[in-house]
Amino acid sequence: MLNVIFSRMEAQSASDSKIKEETSDQDVHEKDSRALSMSDSVACEFVPGDDQVIVVEKVDNCSASQEGLGPEYSHDKINLSEQHSDSLPKQIAESILNEIVDQVVNDTDISKSLPESPAPNVFTTEDNSSPPFLPRVPSQDSLETAESSAEPVQAKFSHVLQKDAFLVFRSLCKLSMKPLPEGHPDPKSHELRSKILSLQLLLSILQNAGPVFRSNEMFITAIKQYLCVALSKNGVSSVAEVFELSLAIFLALLQNFKTHLKMQIEVFFKEIFLNILETPSSSFEHKWMVIQALTRICADAQCVVDIYVNYDCDLTAANIFERLVNDLSKIAQGRQALELGATVNQEKCMRIKGLECFVSILKCKVEWSKDLYVNPNQQTSLGQERQKPHLDDLDSGKGTMTSYGSTNSLSSTNSSHGGSSVALTSLPDNPEQFEVLKQQKEIKEQGIDLFNRKPRRGIAYLQEHGLLGKAPWDIADLFHSDDRLDKTQIGDFLGENEKLNREVMYAYVDQMDFSGKDFVSALRIFLEGFRLPGEAQKIDRLMEKFAARYCETNLNNGLFASADTAYVLAYSIIMLTTDLHSPQVKSKMTKEQYIRMNRGINDSKDLPEDYLSQIYDEIAGNEIKMKATSNKPSGRQGLSSEKKRRLLYNMEMEQMARTAKCLMESVSHAQAPFTSAKHLEHVRPMFKMAWTPFLAAFSVGLQDCDDPEIAAFCLDGIRCAIRIACIFHMRLERDAYVQALARFTLLTANSPITEMKTKNIDTIKTLITVAHTDGNYLGKSWLEILRCISQLELAQLIGTGVKPRFLSSGQAANNDGVGLVLDPSEITRGGVPLDMKKMAILQESMGETSSQSVVVAVDRIFTGSTRLDGDAVVDFVRALCHVSLEELAHSSHPRMFSLQKIVEISYYNMGRIRLQWSRIWEVLGEHFNKVGCSPSEDVAFFAVDSLRQLSMKFIEKGEFVNFRFQKDFLRPFEHIMKKNRSPTIRDMVVRCVAQMVNSQAANIRSGWKNIFSVFHLAAADHDEGIVELAFQTTGKIISHIYEEYFVALIDSFQDSVKCLSEFACNAGFPDTSMEAIRLIRHCAKYVADQPQMFKDHNIEDQSVPEEDRVWVRGWFPILFELSCVISRCKLDVRTRALTVMFEIVKTHGEMFKAHWWQDLFQIIFRIFDSAKLPELQLESQEKQAEKSEWMTTTCNHALYGIVDVFTQYYEILGPLLLDNLYSQLHWCVQQDNEQLARSGTNCLENLVISNGMKFDDQTWDRTCCCMLEIFKETLPYMLLTWKPNRNDNQIIIAETSGKGHSPRHLPQHEQKDAIVKADAESKEEKLFSSLKIKCIVQLELIQTIDNIVFYPSTSRKEDMEYLAAAQADIGHATDSNQLSESQQHEEQGMYPYLKSPQLLKMVECLQESHRFAKAFNTNHEQRNLLWKAGFRGNVKPNLLTQETQSMACSLRILFRMYLDDSRQDAWPQVQNRLIGICREALDYYLSLSTENHRESWTSLLLLFLTRIHKMDDERFRAHAAVYYPCLCEMICLEIKPELRAVLRRFFLRIGPAFNITPVISK
């Protein structure tokens, strides 16, 4: 019959809709009239409760039977007992149906009669006027007083069928609420069966509800006001069947009506079902049914997400999802509150169900967020519903998740759809907004918790976070609106006498509306929100404000004379309540006593006795209490018997029912917006909030229980949790779950390997599956997975019966903390030996790890790395390298499992794009660097060989121009060669690189840099084989490969030259050094022949101008490396390098630009850097010898080479570098090295002679200044001032030397004195050596000036001519041929290019040198001191040569200037200077006392007299007049015949010149 009623209603609604569609194009008036003819409009209002009535106003007088309802609705046809009168169930059904029909008919009759005699609060309208409204009145069980401000409910039905269905539905709801008899009900009793049947019918209606029932406002309202209230009573029934039906109805409501029942669903969860789970006294049967219902709820993704979004993210709602998860976590861990005497099996079943709920929730989340998941293996999802609770296949394609809309889950896909006519305000599904709300809610909950402990702090906290206003009104509103605030704390806060507290209390009371309420009802409303404080003063303030507010809102009361009356009466009512209902008061107050107590309180008058009597009766029958709130169980309680448990349970259920019913009725008219979640992002905050309870449940399940079903659920849950954490990139959560999974494999844990069980094997398989399906998201979690796989390889060896040498023990207590030796007798980490039986069992359990499926699955992790995305594969490789290092860290037994896998995945991923591969190789290259330097040669050899194979494979692919990836790829060879000192490994590296060069030269591009770097490191080796192989390969590259592939090698040209330089500097192989220098010279040919190529290829440094690239990348490296060879190598090699360097410069210098020459000479001058280093006082003799050799050979050679280059390219070098060259020559002359000093002066002479004709005046000035500075700085002034250090040490040394004793045999103090003396002598020796060199430099400089001015050997030849002429004793002038020859030699010098002031400066410098030598030669005492000190051995020192040569050079210059017609302007100055010098010289000669000294002046006097003799008569007279007395004195001296002959010619000319004698013709 019910099916007929509701199906006809739906059919009629569909028919109406169809007719309306057909007539939609007609006139509005016609459409309205036709609609009225097809259906009756019925308006009704209803009032909930047992005495509710329906007021119906019909549009026409048609009855139900006239509308075609048929005989099904007649009483005659409803008699079901005629056919089976003997069937008790049918009789019960008959009576129930009759009761339903009777009630429907009675309701209809009452509704017809109501307009004639309306109830006081019922208002009806006639003739389609405004529809009737009825205010809501609470049911008889409710203690609440209905608010007069509640809006009336408007009821409208479009057809009488809807009205009938409504009446039937309401009657069933009322029937299901009828109370059962006290005690345990009889299962066959009429009351119980009628209740069960009515619930079954209601369930059928809800499950088969059509769109009209689901969307019509009246039916939704009926569900709220009748059905939900009925469920709040039946949902705590102790009868299992009633409870089960209530759960089923709740599930149906949740499935189809949750968008309309947001607040009702919250009550069901919060007050009934979750309380039952948490209550320790509830029966197992009730808990089991609840958790079964939760299983269905948790299997619906939409429902789970909707619960979180609408409750946990609602500031005013309870955290249903969070509480559900926490309860399920306790159940899944076996910590739930079970009833007394529950069996182990029951506990296990509950635990399994809890885990099933957890897994369902996680699967829902996975399903919800599946669009974000990318499976690297192109699989669908993660966890299918399996027939067996364990992994059947590790293949991700078979172990993935499907949709969860199974028969065991709610299908809420239509719950938010359909044409609902109920106007609900729905919030938009904005994940960010909900996340903000959730955060605010957490802050608010924290503030409320703080308030319940410290009210003021809680209020300040909420205000600080912007969740509570500063005004007292806002605080008072919070006290009214939030039931979570502690009522006692609210009362204490409101009763305080502080300003803020009083203002809040005033606002709190002012927000209450007591209008129309009787005094007791108003007092109930006032006191239900807080608990009165214990202090009388606080109560007094509260009652005073209450009385004022009551009188303010009830001005027309007429009963109270003033607010004082209300204040006293309120106080007396509170006292009466305490007296009548407190168990501590034994003598209760009587009504008469109460009336007598209140006499005269109404302005000295009495209140009516009837009024006070009514108050007494009401308080006696109904205590004033606070608003009903939920009472959560306080935890597991100790119950000593089943009887006590049942008693307690019944009490708790009654309290639950009362609380739920009150809350349900209070929200029956409330409209709360419900959001149907759609966004995927909701899963993130859900999982972030719940991941720890999930992990705790799964970890405990795997740790404590060996049941395969529990283990399967735990592993499924962990898989799902990892998937969610991966999808939303929640690193902390992901790492925690993966670490937990890895820990339960026992592969890396501290537990002995012998404890490996089936669940651990399944965990291993699950871990492999996670790696296979979620690899793109694992990040750093790869490390835990790959550690387990590394240890799995050892476990597989055990399973196959092989005896492994060791097995990693994680943190086991072994010395190195890496591994533990593993033999059959010691494979336990505790060191307990195993017998053969246990060993067999272990091998059998471990054998499963070696199954084909596991082996293939592990292999697929590595082969599948090709399908990982760019970031994931880098994380994978990094983790694998880390594990490999851990394996290799074992000091005695390193493993190479992961290293082999690294090589494999490198091959697999070789085809990736360069951008990804470069990131991969950044990690792999660093790993090969470390492994290649392993102390174990086997490991390092394997690494190098693997690197060779990978490199060959990669080089085969080739490389485009200007890319640098080969360089990065081959860099590990360079690092290993640099860091690994093992000859075997170094030889292996060189051979690998040589093989690459020999086989892949055509494909190598940027890798040449690394190749030359490896050979550069090999070049410094001491192993002949390594050096030989490296040099042979390098020679092949330079000689042959350069010819064919020079373009590809041009970027590494500098590296090749540097490599050859290193070969040249290896002192152990001189032949190789010479050949390397030859190859460097060969490289210069490539630069000279192909300079344009260097300009076109310069990617590395774009800052170098194009015209300079050939210098920077070609010539400069060659010359620089040759200078390095010169600086580092032994004499023969550096001499060869120096020769080659200057050959290259001289040969190709015409290609060099001006600024190139500057760079070049910086390189060349580096040759002298070694000699420029200051000598240390304690420098060894060997070092001094090396330095001396360096100056004598290399520096000397370099100086001549520099001058040659300068001469060849003077036009370019002169303006740029002449000053630098002079500075260098100046430095050379200053050195304490005779050969270098001589070379410096000689090079200066050659430079000036070769290029003097190109000098300008400024250059000559600089040149003269340079020579003058050298003169001044090399004068040995110390010769004139040196004094010996005289002390007793000389005597000591002499005595010990005479006795044949060395200083070390002396006493200690004498030894110190001897050492001091030795140091002094060493310093003196150095000083003497320096002075000697300065003397030599002075002579060299004098000769240099002479050679520069007059050309080399000109002066010597002139002296020889003068001597020959004198020897011939010819009385007249020298033969003209000889004179012309001398004149020709004179013209070849630099004299014509020098200005007179420059020549005079030279003369002055020469005279200064002459005067110094003369002073020394005449200081006989100083000469004797130096002689005794051993300055020149046994020869008495003198400076005769310097004395005479400086004077001779000066005279030649002056005489040449004196006879030069081009210098007539300087003749007077020259004449004066000449006369003065000659007069001084003659005087000095006459003063000489020794024959040897006078003989040394012979050639000088010959020069002087011969030159004077050649002057014309005028000049002769001027000079002869000055010199005549001195020359006369010379006659008296013993002089040589040649000098006498010349002197004779002088005197013979005096006569004619002064007209004393006639001129003698020739």
Automatic annotation (TrEMBL):
Keyword annotations of the record: Cytoplasm
Residue stretches of biased makeup (Low complexity): 402-421
Protein name (Swiss-Prot/TrEMBL): Brefeldin A-inhibited guanine nucleotide-exchange protein 1-like isoform X2
InterPro entries assigned to the protein according to its UniProt record, in alphabetical order: ARM-like, ARM-type_fold, Mon2/Sec7/BIG1-like_HDS, Mon2/Sec7/BIG1-like_HUS, Sec7/BIG1-like_C, Sec7_C_sf, Sec7_dom, Sec7_dom_sf
Composition bias, Polar residues: 122-131, 139-148
SMART domains reported for this sequence: Sec7 (SM00222)
Gene: LOC106464639
PANTHER family: GUANYL-NUCLEOTIDE EXCHANGE FACTOR, LD29171P
Gene3D superfamilies tied to this protein: 1.10.220.20, Arf Nucleotide-binding Site Opener,domain 2 (1.10.1000.11), Leucine-rich Repeat Variant (1.25.10.10)
Pfam families: BIG2_C, Sec7, Sec7-like_HDS, Sec7-like_HUS
Domain (SEC7): residue spans on this chain: 433-622
Record has Cytoplasm as a keyword: yes
Location in or out of the cell: Cytoplasm
Biological classification of the source: Eukaryota, Metazoa, Ecdysozoa, Arthropoda, Chelicerata
Chain intervals with Basic and acidic residues compositional bias: 17-34, 385-396
Region (Disordered) residue spans: 9-35, 111-148, 379-425
